[in-house]
Automatic annotation (TrEMBL):
The keyword Membrane does not apply. InterPro entries: C1-like_sf, DC1, PKC_DAG/PE. It comes from the Eukaryota. It holds the Pfam family C1_2. Keywords: Metal-binding, Repeat, Zinc. This is Phorbol-ester/DAG-type domain-containing protein.
Length: 273
């Protein structure tokens, strides 16, 4: 599977967007501030990985530690904390700042204003309002061309994208969901921004689909296994407890039953003496 994204406007890429990161760069290796004990090497493999920065999946190009199971998307590895991002087409009225830690705000996680998914790690956040987005979503173009549709797709305004009841069924996942939507200017084809992210993070080119669904199934299986084990242990302890209780009752009963015999023997000895 191959998808070739293109943009009719400005294309935002880490190389041009971040003129110089404070990380030490040695050819294809960097010393990243979040993993200073080892150098990270640029590699390009089609296997699935979980980025230690944004905590989202990826495939293809990434910076990886050859000694640890540590990986970073290229677009997560190059920006640095509090770096300013100006004039972004998704929110050009304010500046963004890169944050390497999740937002503090109670139990509920903040959600990306582009894909609508929770933000668990690295993020770009507006310095004047609550607008925020994943590093991967920041890389999405305003216009996009994909291999399985003949026409150009444009990112729809937030008001239109958020109207799930308008019948925006994604041509990729065949579902309705929250988040921004790309729409065809010629026909009624739509593509979720969260599905378009697979072009940026390498999943589409690597032929990897449905990682979110797969992850949720694994999570559900883990929770089910945990409940089964918990119920088994609870039942076992309950059975053990019942067994101990029964044994204790039996011992007490036997003790009471034997007690009169001892008294009778003692009284008999006293009379004989």
């Amino acid at each position: 599977m191959t998808a070739l994204p293109s943009s009719s406007g400005t294309t935002f890429t880490p190389r041009s967007l971040y003129p110089m990161s404070p990380q030490l760069i040695f050819g294809e290796e960097i010393i990243h501030y979040s993993h200073q004990q080892h150098a990270l090497s640029m590699i390009n493999l089609p296997d699935l990985f979980r980025c230690a920065g944004c905590l989202e999946d990826g495939a293809g190009k990434r910076y990886t530690c050859q000694q640890c199971d540590f990986h970073l998307h290229e677009f997560c590895a190059l920006p640095y904390p509090n770096q300013v991002l100006k004039n972004h087409p998704f929110h050009y009225q304010h500046n963004f700042y890169f944050h390497s830690k999740p937002a503090k705000g109670g139990i509920a996680k903040s959600r990306c204003d582009i894909c609508g998914e929770p933000m668990k790690g690295y993020a770009f956040r507006c310095g004047a309002c609550s607008f925020s987005m994943h590093p991967c979503c920041e890389m999405l173009p305003v216009d996009i061309v994909i291999s399985n549709h003949p026409h150009k797709l444009q990112l729809l305004p937030p008001a239109a994208s958020s109207s799930a009841d308008l019948g925006f069924v994604c041509g990729e996942c065949k579902k309705r969901r929250s988040g921004r939507v790309y729409g065809c200017t010629v026909c009624g084809y739509y593509l979720h921004a969260v599905c378009a992210k697979s072009i940026v993070n390498g999943l589409y080119d690597s032929g990897i689909k449905g990682t979110e669904k797969h992850t949720s199934k694994l999570g559900a299986a883990a929770r089910l296994a945990s409940r089964v084990v918990s119920n088994f242990i609870g039942g076992l302890m309950e059975s053990i407890g019942e067994g101990l209780g029964q044994a204790l009752v039996q011992n007490v009963t036997k003790g009471k039953a034997r007690q009169p015999k001892k008294k009778k023997k003692k009284e008999k000895k006293e009379r004989e003496g």
